Amino acid sequence: MNPEKFRQDFPLTGRGIIYFDNACMSLKPRQVVEAMSDYYLNYPACAGRSVHRLSAKATEEYSKARQTVAKFVSAKQEEIIFTKNTTESINLVAKSLELAGRTSITSDKEHNSNLVPWQLAGNHKVVRTSDDGFDFDDFESKLGKKTGIVSVVHTSNIDGTTLPVKEIAKIAHDYGALTMIDAAQSAPHTELNVRKLGVDFAAFSGHKMLGPSIGVLFGKKEALEQLKPFMTGGDTVSRTTYTTQEFLKPPEKFEAGLQNYAGAIGLAEAIRYLEKIGMKNIEKHETALNRVITEELESTVSIIGPSYDKRSGIFPFNIRKTDPGEIAILLDNQNICVRSGQHCAHSWFSDRGIKGSVRASTYLYNTEDECARFASAVKKIERMV
Amino acid sequence: MVFCIIGLAIFGILGIFSAKYRTYAKEAWRCLKRQVTLRPCDTDFDKKMRAKVAGKFMKFPKLSRAIYKAFPAFSWAMVIMLFVSIYWTGVGLYNTVQYGNCNGPGSHEFCIFNPFESSDMHEKVSKMSPVAVSDDPSIGDPNSSVQIVEVGCFMCPYTKNSESIRQQLMIKYNGNVSFTFKAFALPKHNLSQETAEAALCAREQDAYWEYHDKLFEYQENMTMEKMSDIASELGLDESAFGECFSSRKYQAAVEQDRQESLDAGVFATPTYFVNGKPIVGMKGFTDFEQIVVNEIKGTCENA
C-alpha cells in the first residue's frame, strides 16, 4: 500500500505536520467533507418526517448510510443505531440493560467510557490482562450464573493490543452472559466482523476512522430487544396518548429526536474510502510503520506493551522519568502531533504506578519517512532531557 | 512553584490584552494556589512552560538542552528579579509622590515618568521671565548673593511638600540666601485666594512667616474658621486680623500677585526663581542646594 496515493485527499499532510494522534482523532479526506457539505447545501432536511423531495433524499441517504455501516461490520441494517459517539453507545447499553443484580465484567485496560458506566451499573468486576494477553483463568473465576454482561475493549487505546474477543464472547455466552466490545480503536484499523466475533454489542466512533463525530452501536436483534429505551421522544414512538406510548422497533427505538444526518452520511463516505483501500491493507501498513518506529527507538525509549506486531498502529513510550506532556510539547515544536497523558485509562496507569505515556498512533496516510523523522525528533529530545 | 509566580505575573499582564494568555494565567494561578496550600500542582504548568521555551530552540540542541536543564535556576532568577522590580517600583512611586522625582531627594538621574515635567515644560520654562517682587514678604538678608523667589499656593500640596527646602536652606546658608514668597492663588484649590489674603493680614502684625507655616501645617483641614483660629493661636490681635480678613483688604493685592506670576510665565506651583532663573516643580534638597551653591560660587567668581 502506497500512502502517497491518498495523501492529497488530506490537505494537512502537505503542510509539514506529522499527524500521529490518530488514536484520538483521524484526519478527514476531502470526500467525507464534500459528502457532508452536499447534505448541508443541497438537501438539509429532516429524514423520515416530511414528505417533500428534500426530506425524501435525506431519508434515502440516511438509510443508505445505515446500510453501509451495517455491511462494514457484517451486521443487519436494523442492528445499527447511530449515537453521538462510542461513549454514548456504551452508556446506552449500560443504562438500558436491566441487570437486576447481575454482574458486569470488564478488563483492566478499559477506557473510562467502558469502565465508569459499568461501575455505576453496580456489581462490576475486573479481569486482569498482561502483555501476553487476557487472563482467562481470572476471567472464568469471575464468571458465574449471575454475570449479566461482559464488556471489553477490542483494541486497547493504551498500547494497541487486541484482546481475543471471540474466545471471550464464547465463554461468556456459555455462562449466559451478553457480550459487548469497545471497538473504537479496532473498527478504524482492522476488519470488524461482529458475526465472526460473536458479540452481542459493539460500539465505535466515526471520528477515529476518517469520519465526522458520530457514534455507532451494533446490537444483535435479540440483544437489542432486551434493552429499555435510552433516550425517548420524537422518532422513538409510533403512537402516544396522554398516558401511554408505543415504541418503535430498533433501531428507531433508540434514536430519539432529530439525528446527525450529515454525520451518518459522512461516516458512510469514510467507510467507502476505507473499503476502497481495504482494511487488511491498512492494518498491514500500520504494522509496517510501527516496525520502523520501534526498530529506530527501542534502544532509546521505554516502550509500553508487547512487540510491534501486536500493537496495531500505536507506539506508546516514555523517556526515563520525563513528563509525557513535556515530550509531547517538544514534539509539537517540531511539528509532530502526538497524545500524552493517561489516555482516559487512569485506572490502568494508576494500578501500575505509571504517570502516563506519550502515544504516537499512525494511520493509512502516514509514511515511513514521517516515522523516521519522528524517531529522529524523539532521539533529539532524549538527548536534551 | 517558582515559575508559577513569574508565569502569573507575565501571563496576567499579557492576559489583559489577549485571551490566549488568560488560560496560562489561570493555570499559573491554580498551580500557585495549590502549592501554597501544600497540594501538588495538577496542571504541570512549569513543565509545560519549560518544554515550550526549550522547544523553541530545538534547532540549537546545546542551547535548548541548557535552557531545559537550567530552567529551575532561570525561574528562580526571574522571580528574584520580579520581587526586586516590585520593590524598586514601590520606592520610585513613593519618591515621585514625596519628592517629585522617582529617584528620591538629591538625585539628578533621569525618570521615565515624571508628572511634574511635561513634554512641553522646557519650552514653557525657556519663555519665563523673572517675576516682579516689589512688595512681597521676604526673609533673610536682602543683600545676600542668592535671591530666591518662590511662587507658591498655600493650598497646593506640592508647595507644602517643598517647604522643608526653604527651611533647610535658610539654616545652612544663612547670610547667603534671601527668600521671598509670592502667593499664587490657584483657582483649582479651594480657599487658595482666602489663605493668601489671610497671610497678608498676618503680615500687618509682623507674623507673616509664622502664619505662612501654620497655613501649610493645617492645609488638609483648612476652613475659614481655621484661618481665624491660626491668628488666635499665634497671639495676633484677633479683632484687627478679623477686620482685615473680612474686609478683603488684600483681595486686589493677591490677584495682582497672581497676575504678575502669570505675566512671568508661571504655570505651576511651586516655581522658584533663583537669582531670576526659573526652576519649576518640586526638587530634592540636594538638587536645590547644588543650584544655590553654584549661584554662590558664580557670584564669588564674578566679584
In a nutshell, what does this entry contain?
The complex is a heterodimer of chains A (385) and B (303). Chain A is of the alpha/beta class and 385 residues long.
What's the layout of helices and strands?
The complex is a heterodimer of chains A (385) and B (303).
Chain A: H1 4-7, E1 18-19, H2 30-42, H3 53-72, E2 80-83, H4 86-96, E3 103-107, H5 116-121, E4 124-127, E5 129-130, E6 133-134, H6 136-142, E7 147-153, H7 165-174, E8 178-182, H8 194-197, E9 201-205, E10 215-219, H9 221-224, E11 237-240, E12 245-247, H10 261-277, H11 279-297, E13 302-303, E14 314-318, H12 324-332, E15 336-337, E16 339-341, H13 346-352, E17 357-361, H14 368-384
Parallel strand pairs in A: 1-15, 3-4, 3-7, 7-8, 8-9
Antiparallel strand pairs in A: 2-10, 5-6, 9-10, 11-12, 13-14, 14-17, 16-17
Helix pairs in contact in A: 2-10, 3-10, 11-14
Chain B: H1 2-17, H2 19-36, H3 45-55, H4 61-99, H5 121-126, E1 138-139, E2 146-152, H6 157-161, H7 163-172, E3 177-183, H8 192-203, H9 208-217, H10 224-233, H11 238-246, H12 251-264, E4 271-274, E5 277-280, H13 285-302
Number of helices of chain B: 13
Give the number of domains of chain B.
2
**Poorly predicted segments of chain B:** none
User: Which percent band covers the strand fraction of chain B?
Assistant: 5-15%
State the CATH topology of the largest domain in chain A: Aspartate Aminotransferase, domain 2
Quaternary structure state of the chains depicted: heterodimer
What characteristic shape of chain B results from the CA principal axes? elongated
Across the major sheet of chain A, the strand order is 2-10-9-8-7-3-4
Number of strand segments of chain A: 17
What is the total tally of β strands of chain B?
Answer: 5
Within CATH, the superfamily of the largest domain in chain B carries the name Glutaredoxin
CATH hierarchy: architecture of the largest domain in chain B:
3-Layer(aba) Sandwich
CATH topology of the largest domain in chain B: Glutaredoxin
Nearest-integer average pLDDT of chain B: 86
**What fraction strand of chain A?**
15-25%
For the sheet with most strands of chain B, the description reads: 5 strands, mixed
Arrangement of strands in the largest sheet of chain B: 1-3-2-4-5
